[in-house]
Design goal:
The complex is a heterodimer. By secondary structure, chain A is α+β, with helices and mostly antiparallel strands. Chain A has one domain (6-84): Orthogonal Bundle (Arc Repressor Mutant, subunit A). Chain A has 4 helices and 3 strands. Chain A has a 3-stranded antiparallel beta sheet with strand order 1-3-2. In chain A, α1 crosses α4 (67-85). By secondary structure, chain B is an alpha+beta fold. The chains are: A alpha+beta, B alpha+beta.
């Protein structure tokens, strides 16, 4: 994937941020509201960059937000805050 | 809540204005028209002279009282004892209409009254809303009715005083320095909501302003039509052209107002939809959607909202707008009438006019610079968007 959509990425990060325990891939995909292929591509991209990691629990693959992922989510939140409040008179 | 001494005695405004304004008006009247007063008092007044005297007194008294009570209303900053008023975000959650300013925020506390809060809610100023400003501006155009401005000022002042007593006060320690991500997102949602809300309000009030300008243009056109048709009216007594012209002007004005209304409703609805979406996420309503995604979409709208806000500069700074209007009005009036009153009025009028034009130009130029700066900053921030997910990009 060359250029990921920040909106989808932010949705994934937000969902994982809210739920700190590992989340089932299918549950996360339903929560994000994209089809499985697109979701898988995004998840692979995020795992490659260390934003998320996959863990095996009870025979299921679950997704977990890494420290880098938490930092990325914080950066997005800070960036939005600066856009909204920045230079406002 | 205990408020500043001056505000708690809102009638102070009335007493000072009347106490200075009425005797001063009498003195001005006597000095300007010395032959009228003694004649009236000594020999008894006939009706036209009495009417002229009352009209002159009402005009001078109205302007003087208004010029005293308006600065008394707008200029002073009053302090609030105790913990101060809640922050703008908390006030929005409590159902107040809040608008952020540079180093301050406005809270609408009554239909025609706004409180401008400073120093984190520990000091405030009383201001009229844009509707009240328009009413004041229109009244200044009718000299004999200017005294009504005094009543509006009192009403606005009373509204501020009453509204302040009903506002929630801050309790407990101030917020900690380090903010969590949830707090940052909450703050962003509130900031975006306020921008959208303000954009909707500015678009709505700009319709009223444009409609008013259209009606004034129609009246000017009708007066011009009357002047053109006057010879025909006097010589032939024919109302045909005047009637036809009046119909055309009325129809054109009505169509113009309808088009403006149509355009306004689309723009206002757009901003209202954004404000509603953001508010439903702030209130965590069911099915409100993802806050972060909504905020990312809202970021694209920010320059539009800021541009709308720039265009609403006249209602954003009501005190300065009113001052500009008063200066221009006094300037033009004095320069036109100095020959009947006193030559010094020409000089005073020129100074007022020059200062009014300077403030007017400054307001427009500073708004343009501010807009350009904001647009540049926004583009720079949007350019950073793609690099947000790169790891190790510290701030």
């Amino acid at each position: 994937m060359d250029r990921p959509d920040l909106y989808v990425m932010a949705r994934i990060l937000e969902r994982l941020w809210r739920d700190p325990s590992p989340m089932l891939k299918t549950r996360l995909q339903v929560a994000i509201g994209t089809n499985y292929d697109v979701f898988s591509r995004y998840l692979d991209w995020m795992c490659e960059r260390g934003l998320t990691s996959l863990v095996d629990e009870d025979g299921h693959q679950k997704v977990l937000l890494t420290d880098e992922g938490r930092e990325a989510y914080r950066r997005i939140a800070m960036w939005i805050n600066e856009v909204v409040h920045g230079k406002r008179g | 809540m205990e408020v500043g001494k001056l505000l708690s005695r809102w009638w102070f405004l009335a007493l000072v204005s009347l106490g200075i304004g009425v005797p001063s008006a009498c003195l001005v009247l006597i000095s300007l028209i010395p032959e009228v007063m003694p004649t009236m008092l000594l020999e008894g007044a006939d009706t036209p002279r009495l009417l002229f005297l009352i009209s002159s007194f009402l005009s001078i008294c109205g302007y003087l009282v208004s010029f005293i009570c308006l600065p008394l209303l707008i200029v002073p900053r009053h302090s609030i004892d105790g913990g101060g008023i809640l922050g703008p975000d908390d006030l929005v959650r409590a159902g107040f209409e809040v608008t952020r300013r540079r180093d301050a925020f406005d809270v609408r506390v009554a239909k025609y009254s706004v409180l401008r809060m400073y120093e984190g809610g520990h000091a405030f100023r009383c201001l009229p809303t844009s509707t009240a400003i328009w009413a004041i501006v229109l009244l200044f155009m009718a000299p004999q009715l200017t005294i009504i401005v005094f009543l509006i000022a009192l009403y606005v002042h009373h509204g501020c005083c009453k509204g302040l007593r009903g506002m929630p006060v801050r309790s407990g320690a101030p917020a900690p320095e380090e903010r969590s991500v949830e707090e940052i997102i909450g703050d962003s949602l509130m900031g975006a909501y306020m921008l959208a809300r303000e954009a909707a309000d500015v678009r709505r009030s700009s319709y009223n302003d444009h409609a008013l300008i259209l009606v004034i243009l129609a009246l000017v056109a009708w007066v011009a039509l009357l002047a053109i048709c006057a010879p025909d009216l006097i010589e032939h007594g024919s109302f045909a052209w005047l009637g036809l012209g009046t119909l055309v002007i009325v129809a054109a004005t009505a169509i113009g107002v309808l088009i403006l209304r149509e355009r306004r409703s689309k723009d206002v609805a757009r901003e209202e939809t954004w404000a509603k979406k953001l508010l439903s996420v702030i209130r965590e309503e069911e099915g409100a959607g993802s806050p972060i995604e909504l905020l990312l979409c809202a970021c694209q709208e920010v320059p539009i909202w800021l541009e709308v806000r720039r265009r609403g500069i006249w209602s954003r700074e009501p005190g300065r707008t009113l001052l500009i209007f008063i200066l221009l009005n006094v300037g033009v009036g004095s320069m036109l009438q100095y020959s009947y009153i006193w030559w010094g009025y020409f000089f005073i009028g020129m100074v007022c006019l020059a200062f009014g034009i300077f403030l007017f130009s400054y307001q427009i130029v500073s708004a343009r610079f501010e807009s350009r700066e904001i647009a540049g900053e926004w583009e720079r921030k949007m350019g950073e968007m793609d690099s947000l997910l790169e790891s190790g990009r510290g701030r």
